[in-house]
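Case 347 in the screening queue. Each case pairs one protein sequence with one candidate compound; here the compound is zinc ion. For every case the pipeline is the same: read the inputs, emit a complex structure as tokens, and attach any notable structural observations.

Predict complex for case 347.
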Amino acid sequence: MPETCDICSSPDSMYPLLETSLLGITSAWIHRCASCGFRQIRPRLDRETLSLIYPGEYFHSEGGTGYRDFSRQAQRSLRLAYFLAGKMRRLVPPEARLLEIGCALGFLLQGLEKYTPWQVEGLDVSPFAAYFAGRMYGVPVTCGTLEEARFPDRHFDFIIQKDLLEHVTHPREHMRESNRILKSGGYLWLITPNGKANIRPLERAARKIREAGADALPLLGQGHLSFFSKNHLLRLFSETGFDCVSMRNISIRRGLRALGFLPGRNRCAAAILRQNISRPSPDAGSGAGSGRFGMLYERIAREIHRRYRPFRSRPLYFRQRGLLQATGRLPAWATVGLDFECLLRKR
Ligand SMILES: [Zn+2]
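Case 347 output:
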């Protein structure tokens, strides 16, 4: 069967565009659809490579892909939960069942549990993330992909997918499955990057490498597999059974920087020498026992406590930051932000 495009379903329309190094682990080609322009890593990653990408180390502060400051990230998620709860309380009933797909260390779930009466649970492909969220915050987290979890039909009232859609191997199937487990009229809130702002720094790095004649690849540092435009997303949502209630561009300054309209970091992706691309052995990943998880847990938990700042968890501070952030948001037509924020409703 020919591999089709996830957006326009054209068969065999994806052609290679740009070779990159996926997290420094393997070489991966970004392909582009000749008919709709959608860009995606092909061939699709298999389950084994996926679990190599998301072992405990994905969240390791020195790994480059994790958070630089876990405490700050945890408190930032608490703030996001505060605003999200305020916005969604009007739309979602108090007895609602909520699922966060790709919940990472459970920071956002912890906040939602604090600010809403909803019954919350999480799902993450990283065994360490599931372990951490369960132990640190007592929230139930299943380990696996959405397809593996096999939730019942129409089970949830509200689904959250923050920075997830760009990481899944089959976005169309993933959205269809999200639709299946949502109740009719249920909501899906998601954040996913502006593909153009993600690719531009890679293209710039590739040009520099070519000019220098180096045997290197631009580093695709966050493990993104798909690069969506606004229209790609709208089509995908509509064809998988969702109405788009709202869509906005967020992180405008970082987006403008990535697109090259403003000076600063992130304008150009890092380069990695081909000889330094190292594929770890499978037992270096998720197969390790809870002993290693325990040590990593202690380290991150300690860091969260050590750097905790009480003022960052106060609603007054939230509102002040909220006002600042409002200046970094634009309606969906101006696609210069780093991310899209979308609220969808199951038809
Ligand atoms: Zn296409």
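Case 347 observations:
- The chain has one domain: 47-192+224-346.
- The longest helix spans residues 70-88.
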